[in-house]
Amino acid sequence: IEIPIREKNIVLIGFMGVGKTTIGKLVAQKLYRDFIDVDEEIEKIYKIPITQIFKELGEKEFRKFEKEFIVNTCSQTKLKVISLGGGAFLHEEVRNVCLSRCIVIYLDLSWESWKERLPLIIDSRPVLQNKTLEEIEEIFFKRREAYALHNSKICTNDLPPETVADSIVESIK
Ligand code: S3P
């Protein structure tokens, strides 16, 4: 039996710094749902920032925990809006659980627009550190292959978060 759209979790995916957290919070408010930002929750559990988790425990450990956390969160019955970290959707298991139980919305941004945000986000994103712009560009386009498995896509270029949130709410009515 197919679950009606209104009874599914909303999962936001997309590259780092695209606005998943900001937009997710707004969508949750508008729909009176709980909001879960996976990175924030992981930081609360470990009591240290993501950068430090990468440094002290390694990316592998972070990815393992991230995957388990998402699978768990998606399996709970209370309806939520969930913002994933930019690398989470690369796990096959995460994709499977999200695509089977949730509406997966991909927030896209052009490389040109995204590049301008890089200085604002680089310090808190271990994946972007010690890389050339060319290397980051390669990750950006490589990641798009995984994000392409979404249920619905919104290009956020130059749109205020409120507008993006409204169109997400509109699309699930
Ligand atoms: C990551 C994205 C980050 C965070 C971690 C790894 C990635 O989340 O999970 O730094 O691999 O893309 P945001 O997408 O919220 O920045």
Automatic annotation (TrEMBL):
<keyword id="KW-0547">Nucleotide-binding</keyword>
<dbReference type="InterPro" id="IPR023000">
    <property type="entry name" value="Shikimate_kinase_CS"/>
</dbReference>
<keyword id="KW-0460">Magnesium</keyword>
<dbReference type="InterPro" id="IPR027417">
    <property type="entry name" value="P-loop_NTPase"/>
</dbReference>
<keyword id="KW-0418">Kinase</keyword>
<keyword id="KW-0057">Aromatic amino acid biosynthesis</keyword>
<feature type="binding site">
    <location>
        <position position="39"/>
    </location>
    <ligand>
        <name>substrate</name>
    </ligand>
</feature>
<dbReference type="GO" id="GO:0008652">
    <property type="term" value="P:amino acid biosynthetic process"/>
</dbReference>
<dbReference type="GO" id="GO:0005524">
    <property type="term" value="F:ATP binding"/>
</dbReference>
<dbReference type="GO" id="GO:0004765">
    <property type="term" value="F:shikimate kinase activity"/>
</dbReference>
<comment type="subunit">
    <text>Monomer.</text>
</comment>
<feature type="binding site">
    <location>
        <position position="63"/>
    </location>
    <ligand>
        <name>substrate</name>
    </ligand>
</feature>
<dbReference type="InterPro" id="IPR000623">
    <property type="entry name" value="Shikimate_kinase/TSH1"/>
</dbReference>
<keyword id="KW-0963">Cytoplasm</keyword>
<keyword id="KW-0808">Transferase</keyword>
<feature type="binding site">
    <location>
        <position position="86"/>
    </location>
    <ligand>
        <name>substrate</name>
    </ligand>
</feature>
<feature type="binding site">
    <location>
        <begin position="17"/>
        <end position="22"/>
    </location>
    <ligand>
        <name>ATP</name>
    </ligand>
</feature>
<comment type="function">
    <text>Catalyzes the specific phosphorylation of the 3-hydroxyl group of shikimic acid using ATP as a cosubstrate.</text>
</comment>
<dbReference type="InterPro" id="IPR031322">
    <property type="entry name" value="Shikimate/glucono_kinase"/>
</dbReference>
<comment type="similarity">
    <text>Belongs to the shikimate kinase family.</text>
</comment>
<dbReference type="GO" id="GO:0000287">
    <property type="term" value="F:magnesium ion binding"/>
</dbReference>
<protein>
    <recommendedName>
        <fullName>Shikimate kinase</fullName>
        <ecNumber>2.7.1.71</ecNumber>
    </recommendedName>
</protein>
<dbReference type="GO" id="GO:0009073">
    <property type="term" value="P:aromatic amino acid family biosynthetic process"/>
</dbReference>
<comment type="pathway">
    <text>Metabolic intermediate biosynthesis; chorismate biosynthesis; chorismate from D-erythrose 4-phosphate and phosphoenolpyruvate: step 5/7.</text>
</comment>
<dbReference type="GO" id="GO:0005829">
    <property type="term" value="C:cytosol"/>
</dbReference>
<feature type="binding site">
    <location>
        <position position="143"/>
    </location>
    <ligand>
        <name>substrate</name>
    </ligand>
</feature>
<dbReference type="Pfam" id="PF01202">
    <property type="entry name" value="SKI"/>
</dbReference>
<keyword id="KW-0028">Amino-acid biosynthesis</keyword>
<dbReference type="GO" id="GO:0009423">
    <property type="term" value="P:chorismate biosynthetic process"/>
</dbReference>
<feature type="binding site">
    <location>
        <position position="125"/>
    </location>
    <ligand>
        <name>ATP</name>
    </ligand>
</feature>
<feature type="binding site">
    <location>
        <position position="21"/>
    </location>
    <ligand>
        <name>Mg(2+)</name>
    </ligand>
</feature>
<keyword id="KW-0479">Metal-binding</keyword>
<keyword id="KW-0067">ATP-binding</keyword>
